[in-house]
Design goal:
Length: about 725
């Protein structure tokens, strides 16, 4: 058995010590004259950021992030491109340094965030702008120099320009006492007077969240400003003044809330925003509410106080008559169906617009004429776009591209029945597309398309079978195209558990790069997965190791029957989070099936997990209460109770900054393997959270996993 720790300080040397097999042996050779897609390719592939469109839709702006193949340092630039032009026609916006979050104001000015000096003389993320002339012809050298707009002492985490181009909305982390983002007041109550201790009170909310220790007294807060020729003026705090009865909350919500949770009113006089109260109930509550702050009053009004479940993503219609948002119905359940709601802004009357449509929407946007809402939602193995009539609630699925829709995102409806969006799939990273009326969309970019085309292609075949209780369950088989001979199988188990390994690209768990090593990757959307109706998603409740395991067993058998090239006698399984739980569950409940397992940040002991994870609402819902309220369910699906049966070689991976599934869960699994004399390895990532984000760590993760799979599956 081997234990090794990886981090930037350790480089890649530890890999050769930990594994005797060459890390990239599986990627040697070509397929029909083309190199196989490698971990190096995945880590260094250029990445498309979110797009923005100019007011008339003539120009689009988007970011491209590149990674140096030797230093693995990343940099991001803005590309400007005409929406009627083809790939490789864009120009890079001149700027010294990395940039992010480009957007256009209604007057055509281009805004973005980048590092700049604050009022305290220190560098922080600031807002910049370029006043693009209407006569600009696409020559980068004729663009005016960027001007720094803000000089705040705190980072600008995000921003939005008002519809009239005269005001600015920004948000970042500052003390509740601050009346502006340009604030140096230290509000963190957890800091000790001496030393570096942290103190928390039982009346505080989160102690830690995702990968950060909390700072009670400091919150994610939003402020509106007037834009001036020299910068900004007249700050208004959206959460109102501090003091008794003040709104104490994070907006956007943490850890993943962003610009989709805040929007200007059509008349630029108010802001709608989503917030979660930062009080003692915070770790057990999914009650996000939508507030409206009239900037002339400066006090927030809760518009959704009657709903104790989630309300989020407020989007006013361009004509100012309606407010659309996404809402759940059941409190304390993070995977409940997200339904589009509509509020008449004149009468205040609200209704659930899509309550009879059994899919959960993930994004919403109005068409410029306010006559339709374009939304995205998981639908079986795709995430397509839908057009919703705000009057009747009728939902129409859009067919935007040839073949499968795969994963549609970043939808921007334009005038003249056009629509900008990104599409990605298992085979290709995101690219930017534009649809014009009923015609199939045209690809605008070549961020990674040609690079992927130069590599040996993979194919993905969808299949369906009768799963647990006879329900139809869907899955996918991804493998190298144009190859002969048997392939070992990899059972790929997604996390969530209310999630999906749908037809989409991932920079972390990527079926294409695993398949390119010579494996057939089999993924199954077991009971509990999203995209098949709410009842199917709900069916995993209090049944973590029941129907899902049966689905995986039947799904693997169905894949082997469907594709004779897959060698079922040589199979490993791998998964993270809930997928990691399933690896631990398989150890004790399907112990004779696999040659090896890869378990990343998986739940090992359900009792200890309940008491150390941060978002307590999650286990409380999935297991029917707290541990003391329902210990029988926690213990029924507790992998540690089957530890005596563990015998399958396992590679355990854990991140030290993972507060969702803390690293002690991984240590516990590794201890069992050692005590049972089962071949095992442990990888500890000191700087990573529940995910692996650093480029070098990602490279080492992939190479390590591939070497482990090769050790057990290849001669």
């Amino acid at each position: 058995m081997t234990i090794f720790t990886t981090g930037k300080a350790f480089g890649l040397i530890a890999l050769s010590i930990a594994f005797a097999a060459p890390a990239l042996a599986a990627n040697d050779g070509e397929v029909n004259g083309k190199a196989r897609f490698s971990a190096q390719d995945l880590v260094t592939m250029p990445r498309l950021g979110s797009p923005a469109a100019s007011p008339d839709g003539t120009w689009v702006a988007y970011t491209v992030t590149t990674t140096d193949p030797e230093s693995y340092k990343r940099s991001t630039k803005i590309i400007l491109q005409r929406s009627d032009a083809g790939p490789d026609s864009g120009v890079t916006v001149p700027f010294d340094g990395s940039v992010s979050s480009p957007s256009f104001a209604s007057d055509g000015t281009l805004y973005f965030t980048a590092s700049g000096k604050g009022s305290d003389g220190k560098s922080a993320s600031q807002l910049w702008r370029i006043a693009i002339p209407k006569s600009w012809n696409g020559n980068a050298s004729r663009l005016p120099r960027a001007q720094q707009v803000t000089r705040f002492a705190s980072d600008v985490v995000g921003y939005k320009i008002s519809p009239d181009s005269k005001k600015l909305l920004v948000w970042g982390d500052v003390a509740r006492k601050c009346t502006t983002l340009d604030c140096t007041i230290q509000g963190n109550r957890s800091k000790a007077e001496h030393g570096n201790a942290r103190f928390y009170d039982s009346t505080d909310g989160f102690v830690r969240h995702w990968d950060h220790w909390e700072t009670p007294g400091e919150y994610s807060r939003a402020f509106a400003y007037t834009l001036t020729a020299k910068g900004v003026a007249d700050p208004v705090a959206l959460d109102g003044p501090d003091g008794p009865g003040a709104l104490i909350a994070d907006t956007p919500s943490k850890p993943f809330g962003g610009g989709e949770e805040l929007n200007w009113s059509a008349d630029s006089a108010s802001v709608y925003f989503t917030a979660r109260l930062a009080d003692v109930n915070e770790p057990t509550s999914t009650n996000l509410d939508i507030y409206r702050t009239d900037l002339s009053v400066g006090k927030p009004v809760d518009l959704t106080a009657d709903n104790e479940a989630t309300d989020t993503q407020p989007v006013p219609s361009p004509d100012g008559k309606w407010l659309a948002w996404l809402a759940m119905e059941r409190p304390k359940y993070e995977a409940d169906q997200l339904t589009i709601h509509l509020r008449n802004l004149q009468t205040g009357e609200s209704r659930a617009l899509t309550k009879d449509f059994d899919r959960s929407f993930s994004s919403i946007a109005w068409t410029p004429d306010s006559r339709a809402i374009i939304a995205t939602a998981a639908d079986e193995l795709d995430v397509p776009a839908f057009r919703i009539d705000p009057t009747s609630g009728m939902v129409e699925k859009l067919d935007l591209v040839d073949g499968n829709e795969a994963h549609i995102a970043n939808v921007i409806p334009l005038s003249l029945n056009r629509m900008l969006f990104t599409r990605d799939s298992i085979a290709n990273p995101p690219e930017l597309y534009i649809a014009n009326g009923p015609d199939k969309a045209k690809r605008l970019t070549d961020i990674a398309y040609s690079k992927m085309a130069a590599l040996a292609p993979v194919t993905t075949k969808r299949f369906a079978f009768a799963g647990a209780e006879g329900d139809t369950v869907h899955g996918q088989i991804t493998k190298l195209a144009g190859t002969d001979g048997k392939m070992p199988a990899i059972l790929y188990v997604h996390g969530g558990p209310q999630g999906s390994f749908n037809d989409s690209w991932s920079s972390r768990w990527n079926p294409a790069v695993v398949a390119s090593q010579g494996y057939a990757v089999v993924s199954v959307d077991f009971h509990g997965s999203t995209g098949y109706g709410q009842a199917f998603t709900d069916s995993i409740n209090k049944d973590w190791g029941g129907k899902p395991l049966k689905d995986l067993q039947l799904g693997l058998a169905a894949a082997l029957k469907d594709d004779s090239q897959i060698d079922g006698s040589r199979a490993c399984a791998m998964g993270a989070s809930y997928g990691g739980f399933m690896m631990n569950w398989i150890e004790g409940n399907w112990p004779d099936r696999f040659k090896c397992l890869v378990q990343h940040d998986g739940l090992f002991d359900m009792r200890s997990f309940y008491y150390v994870t941060e978002e307590s609402w999650f286990p409380r819902w999935d297991f029917g209460g707290s541990y003391t309220e329902n210990p029988e369910i926690y213990e029924k699906w507790n992998p540690v109770n089957f530890a005596k049966k563990w015998k399958t070689p396992m590679f355990v991976i854990t991140g030290e900054q993972d507060f969702r599934v803390p690293y002690g869960q991984g240590l516990g699994a590794f201890t069992v393997l050692r005590e049972n004399n089962v071949p095992a390895k442990l990888m500890v990532l000191p700087d990573e959270n529940h995910w692996v984000l650093d480029p070098e760590n990602s490279l080492q993760w992939h190479q390590s996993v591939f070497a482990w799979l090769d050790q057990w599956l290849k001669p």
